[in-house]
Amino acid sequence: MAEKKKDSKSFFAYVRGRSNSVRKVGPLVNSNVEVVDSSEGMSELFNESFGNVFTKEILDDIPKAKWEYKDSQKLGICDIDINEEIVIYKLQS
Description:
Layout: H1 8-18, E1 28-29, E2 35-36, H2 39-53, H3 84-92
Antiparallel strand pairs: 1-2
């Protein structure tokens, strides 16, 4: 007799869907060890926390863009030729 595969993921998804419980965030504690339970206060705490995680770039250290030339006689970025045939070809491929 073949062994039945257990699908616990579907089972727990079903149970969660039938549950009447509501998941709520908070209350939170800020850096001054004060309890914050208002929606606005908690959103400010999350904003501050997530904002500290991301790197702030130094604008003086941004690399220069590499210029692309169509031929060596032109000084600047080359023109891009777009026509209906090219668009149709690209869409079909």
